[in-house]
Amino acid sequence: TDDTVDILRSQTDIHTIAYPERQGKPTALNHAMEEALGEIVVFTDARQTLDPGAVRNLVLRLLRPGIGAVSGELCHLDADGHVSANVGLYWRYEKWIRKAESRFHSTAGVTGALYAIYRKDYQPLLNDTLLDDFQTPINILREGKRVVFESTARVFDTLQQSSAGERARKIRTLAGNFQAFVRNKWLFVPVKNPILWQFLSHKVFRLLVPYAMVVALLSSFLADGWFYGLAAGLQGVFYLLGGLALLVPAMSKNRILSFVLVFLELNAAAVIGLLQFLTGRTRVKWQKT
Predict the structure, then answer these.
(1) Which of these, 41, 53, 131, 245, could form a disulfide with 257 (CB 3.0-4.6 Å)?
(2) Residue 19 CA, distance from chain mean position
């Protein structure tokens, strides 16, 4: 409706692929890879802005022996367009994990906003795949190549505030994890998965946290003794802080409260994502915004 396709097709150095109707991202990626001619393919989202040296740094890392996929680093910008100093403890922790995994062997997945692979290593996705940025790199990992994180290949995006759209995205992503687990059972087999511990600790155990939280809260309230009473009180304060950060947006700017809110939202999204996956309510076609 905004003539995007016509504008793109007017650029002679851009090959544009467009569908009259929405087909879903996996279908679009499969078609694009059939049309691609280069030895190396870089995937990126339309919304983000790439650092001038991002693609070069991705490719240089990909050229090293044994590496089959390289993930860039997503950096959040504040309202003034500067790299945000308050991205939250949770996101900092996430990036630290990816760097550590990459140094050891491979990271469990890539940043969907920016990553690169060899064209010959791409395997067509099923049309209902929810997490292409997880399925594609683990396909490469299964072939014996490494998936690494390159912090000098940066892509920038505006820091998204908590919203219905952002929560829906998180739920969809977490539902996609369950889909990927079911379709890639080899990931749970030690002799087949070279990054079994990274996969279990980073992807699987995290999804068990909300149920552990419920058990911890109930046991603290039901058990006798001052220790359990203290534990119940501390958990109550934790949930109260999360509620305040959700209801009073200004409070979410505090790093501690931001961490609490993100932690609670992600765990709630994990439960909802599982329910949506089990009931078949996940959608591969994104809703227009």
Answers:
(1) 245
(2) 26
Q: How many residues does the chain have?
A: 289
pLDDT at 281: 78
This prediction has a pTM of 0.85
Extract long-range pairs of 197-201: CB within 8 Å, 24+ residues apart. 198/101, 198/104, 198/105, 198/106, 198/107, 198/108, 199/108
Rounded percentage of the chain residues whose pLDDT exceeds 90: 59
Domain boundaries, the chain: 33-159, 162-289
